[in-house]
Structure to design on (284 residues):
């Protein structure tokens, strides 16, 4: 029997996940179908339980339900625990299993496709929302030497770091490498600058010094689009030689979810290329 999966969110029409997982299934020969579940803002738990009770095997969870999925899942992975959010639910004999694959997706895109070894690097993340929280643990585990979280509202970055250090099992190993601050106190000499703000949605330029970007080996925008994103354009204009958007992270976090569900890791490079071409064709 064909196993059923879906992405659940609100809105969800824009999600590329059905297209990505259909490609993974074809490539690996796994017998599954993957759809979209648009649910009302107050209807998450009911929709998840209905899907599970009807035989559904797993869900990807997108905005705004990741914290709710975290609270609902009876069992959770360590990386979901650290992220405080669940983007992958698996339903099996033992019940619901909640995981978070966003951070692993970012690290795999950086170290694999982009060939940027993270060990010993200084990394600056701009933004202190859910996406940043999801990638903190995996970046530290990858051996970065310094991880600075800078946010428009400095208190949020400081709070995020404090909470991580209070709750994470790997806090002791992270304490002297992790710092929260405002954009103006981000320091310099960062090898990698990651945009994890939602400013890209409005095409806004970030109020940061050009020097932060000019000196970096790579500027990485978690946001992705058919055309060059505002952050990629800002980084290149500031003198950064290499900049890219977050389409690769999207494909890698999906591959990690596929592995959680099926025990098989699909090849991501051909799917990334196909999606990039699909986006370009849509933009005309
Ligand atoms: P979020 O929780 O809503 O956090 C938004 C963050 O953006 C906050 O730190 C906020 O700062 C900052 N911000 C918003 N507008 C800004 C502006 N004009 N200038 C400076 N800072 C601004 O959002 P999120 O869930 O973390 O998502 C962040 C981004 O990551 C989104 O673009 C999302 O699409 C992307 N993402 C991509 C992937 C992928 O697979 N590629 C996965 C996850 C997320 P304040 O605290 O000051 O308000």
């Amino acid at each position: 029997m064909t196993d059923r999966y879906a992405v659940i969110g609100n809105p969800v029409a824009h999600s590329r996940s059905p297209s990505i997982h259909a490609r993974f299934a074809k490539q690996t020969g796994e017998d599954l179908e993957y759809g979209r579940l648009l649910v009302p803002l107050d209807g998450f738990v009911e929709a998840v339980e209905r899907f599970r009770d009807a035989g559904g095997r797993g869900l990807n969870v997108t905005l705004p339900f990741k914290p709710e999925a975290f609270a609902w899942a009876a069992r959770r992975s360590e990386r979901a625990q650290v992220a405080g959010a669940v983007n992958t639910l698996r339903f099996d004999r033992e019940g619901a299993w909640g995981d978070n694959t966003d951070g692993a997706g970012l690290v795999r895109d950086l170290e694999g496709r982009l060939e940027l070894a993270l060990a010993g690097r200084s990394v600056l993340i701009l933004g202190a929302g859910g996406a940043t929280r999801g990638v903190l643990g995996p970046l530290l585990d990858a051996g970065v030497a310094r991880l600075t979280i800078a946010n428009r509202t400095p208190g949020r970055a400081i709070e995020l770091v404090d909470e991580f250090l209070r709750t994470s099992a790997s806090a002791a190993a992270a304490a002297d490498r992790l710092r929260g601050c405002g954009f103006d106190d981000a320091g310099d000499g960062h090898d990698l600058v990651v945009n994890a703000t939602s400013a890209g949605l409005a095409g806004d330029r970030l109020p940061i010094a050009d020097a932060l970007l000019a000196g970096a080996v790579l500027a990485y925008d978690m946001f992705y689009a058919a055309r060059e994103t505002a952050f990629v354009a800002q980084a290149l204009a500031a003198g950064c030689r290499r900049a890219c958007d977050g389409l690769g992270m999207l494909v890698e976090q999906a591959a990690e979810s596929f592995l959680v569900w099926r025990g098989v890791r699909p090849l991501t490079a051909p799917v990334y290329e196909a999606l990039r071409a699909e986006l370009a064709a849509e933009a005309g």
